[in-house]
Design a protein that fits this description.
With 84 residues, this protein is mainly alpha-helical. It has helices at residues 7-13, 25-36, 48-59, 65-78; strands spanning 2-4, 43-45.
Length: 84
């Protein structure tokens, strides 16, 4: 699925420090999304695995800052349940 992030959503995605790639699943996931983002167009291609992981990370674990980021980044494109 190809979606286009706006500048606010890109800014939220970019809050994840790329050096945290090896700190855990969530950090690694956000860094991988950063790397796949076309910064000229804001487009990012989400795989089926991504589309499963986004709501999983947002809703199936303890709520907090990281989870809130996924809502802020993807709710406009995927809806309030993030495609679930």
């Amino acid at each position: 699925m190809l979606i286009t992030l706006n500048q606010d959503e890109i800014s939220i995605l970019d809050r994840q420090d790329p050096s945290t790639r090896t700190n855990g699943g969530f950090q690694s996931f956000l860094v991988s999304l950063q790397e796949r983002l076309d910064r000229d167009t804001g487009e990012i291609s989400l795989t089926d695995k991504d589309l499963r992981r986004i709501p999983q990370y947002a809703f199936d674990y303890a709520q907090g800052g990281w989870e809130d980021r996924l809502n802020a980044i993807f709710s406009r494109s995927l809806g309030p349940t993030l495609g679930r």
